[in-house]
Design goal:
Blueprint lengths: L2 E5 L4 H12 L3 E6 L4 H4 L4 E4 L5 H11 L8 E4 L17 H26 L6 E5 L15 H21 L5 E6 L12 H4 L6 H14 L7 E4 L8
Parallel strand pairs: 1-2, 1-4, 2-3, 4-5, 5-6, 6-7
């Protein structure tokens, strides 16, 4: 039975992806800062983990690593987005920047680092980072969203570096853009009004198809939910 660790699993895309993995007979370790009844009801192991806390990450790793299970799949999906009014050129603060980077950027790096021994034991391990097209510097034609955009651009840099560092060790690393998804991430209501928005189940299904299809030739690349490659 393959093993997967998924962050942000209490809701949205990550929750839908956990359900898919359970259906496909993965042993899933589902992480989130909040563990709700819907997550508890799934046939997976749920763990409260705060990605902004190195101690919390260490606590989970201290539980998982001694199990001696090769980690076949790590999905770094958890993320936050500051409200638009507090993430403009005029309003963004160091506190907003720090909070956003801790969850969106530092947490995924440190969690991956902590689980690396088990990742390297898997036969064909894959790592996926939930980025955003907003994090593409080449694609930035609208500005704004300073903390969110910068955190995702930095996450892309981390994913690319990790792909280079782990290529010789057989680890595939992918960055993903989910598109507009109706979830709790964007509190402004803009997503729900967007005609391109999809439900988490559709986004998770399409992204999972991409992750399954990509091999070492695609490591260190950035993919849209609809299957085309994005610019950095």
């Amino acid at each position: 039975m393959p093993t997967a660790v998924v962050t942000g699993a209490n809701s949205g895309i990550a929750h839908a992806w956990v359900k898919q993995l359970v259906t496909e007979k993965y042993e899933v370790f589902a992480l989130d800062i909040t563990i709700g009844p819907e997550l508890k009801a799934l046939s997976c192991q749920s763990f409260q983990c705060d990605l902004t806390s190195p101690d919390s990450i260490f606590k989970f790793a201290s539980h998982f690593n001694p199990l001696n299970k090769p980690l076949d799949l790590l999905l770094n999906i958890a993320g936050i987005m500051a409200p638009k009014p507090s993430d403009t050129l005029e309003s963004v603060s160091s506190q907003t920047l720090l909070q956003t980077f801790q969850t969106n950027t530092f947490g995924p790096l440190l969690l991956t680092q902590s689980l690396l021994p088990r990742i390297l034991e898997a036969q064909s391990p894959k790592l996926a980072f939930m980025s955003s097209r907003v994090g593409s510097i080449a694609d930035n034609s609208s500005g704004g969203a300073y903390s969110y955009r910068a955190s995702k651009a930095a996450l892309n840099a981390i994913g690319k570096s990790m792909a280079m560092d782990l290529k010789a060790k057989g680890v595939v690393v992918l960055s993903l853009h989910p598109g507009f998804v109706i979830s709790g991430l964007n509190k402004s209501g803009d997503t729900e009004r967007n005609p391109e928005a999809v439900m988490p189940e559709e986004a998770a299904g399409k992204l999972w198809g991409i992750v399954k299809a990509k091999g070492m030739a695609s490591t260190g690349t950035f993919w849209h939910r609809e299957g085309f490659e994005l610019e950095w």
